[in-house]
Amino acid sequence: MGTTPSIRLKGMAWDHPRGYEPLRATSTAFSKIRPEVTIQWDIRSLKEFGDMPIENLIGAYDIITIDHPYMGQAHADKLLVPLEGLISKKSMDCLRGRSVGPSFASYAYEGHQYALPVDAAALVAAYRNDLIHHLKLELPKTRAELFDFYGQVPHGHKVAWPLCATDLWCTFLTLCAQDAGRAFIKDKSIEEKVGVRVLDELKRHMDFLHPMSINWNPIQILDRMGDGDEIIYSPFLFGYTNYSRTGYTKNRVDFTNSPTNPRTDVSTLLGGVGLAISVHCEHCDLAAAYIGYVASPEVQEGIYTENGGQPANLDAWQSRANNRLCNGFFDHTLETLEKAYVRPRHRGWNRFQEEGAHILHQGLRYDTPSEEMMRKLNQLYESIA
């Protein structure tokens, strides 16, 4: 007779097959190793993943998918369990050494590791390779080349950026970091001249983009690229290996590195997902065993990626099998991940991020002067900090 599971852990994932399918698959596999444990996953929207305070989750869930900018808030309010006391130093050192770009380090704060990276992402470029080839277009490698590219796109086709408030914020920070380096935020203030130049440039780009860009997130653009032929290129959006897999959408979407500013070594803003343990979890040892299992090189390269995941382990990104499965997604975007910009993670950043994104979104929508947007942004930052 089989062993009846006696311990149930509850987890909160995010609402996309990339977010929940690999966690469900790894939970099933983990329960075969530890048959006394079952893991149940609930789902929240992508916006809630980026914006919802984890204070709203820790009382009801044992394991939480988390974005690294929450680390400062989690540390200050003692919301998450430090993992260094639950996972061996040898395992931690292995994961640290084989993390994609700064993914592992982004979940460390004040000497504690609060999550393990299981999903690595950054803004990359998406394109319809079949159409780009047919139209004899060359993808831009720098931001300056983008404006030349717009002029070459024939009637009936469009370039789109995801510029809903959340993604506009990520693009704004990316362009600031590309122009001024990683230290453009100093003493809880965004360098005003840098921000003004970037906002002015974004306004210029908007003249050439699909008019719905101001409302769209990456998934909405990728769905349209995969199902229709209008949008052929998007230079800055979070990559999803799902769309590069044959058969996920009608047409395959390919990915490559985003345009950069050759004057700096910064690519784009880091995203991704870590797994963390709530301080209210009653079985931290088992939760940590599961997190360590999911983050391990073998699982990341195998079960996790095979079930629609976008791994955070370098072995998985360099795997020939995974690159065949995803038509070169990992090979073609790894450079961007390795040079990614990591957002500030201090207490209050997430509130600033959410409210600041709204200021920029309203400002671009109604053509507010860039100087005024930056004044409002830094006044908000000062009031929160």
UniProtKB/TrEMBL annotation:
Cross-referenced SUPFAM superfamilies, in alphabetical order?
Periplasmic binding protein-like II
| Record GO cellular component, one term | periplasmic space
Report the principal subcellular site: periplasm
- Location(s), subcellular: Periplasm
| Superkingdom of the organism of origin | Bacteria
> Which InterPro entries does this chain map to?
Bact_solute-bd_prot1, SBP
Q: Which family does it belong to?
A: Belongs to the bacterial solute-binding protein 1 family.
Q: What is this protein called?
A: Carbohydrate ABC transporter substrate-binding protein, CUT1 family
What is the organism field in this record? Answer: Pseudozobellia thermophila
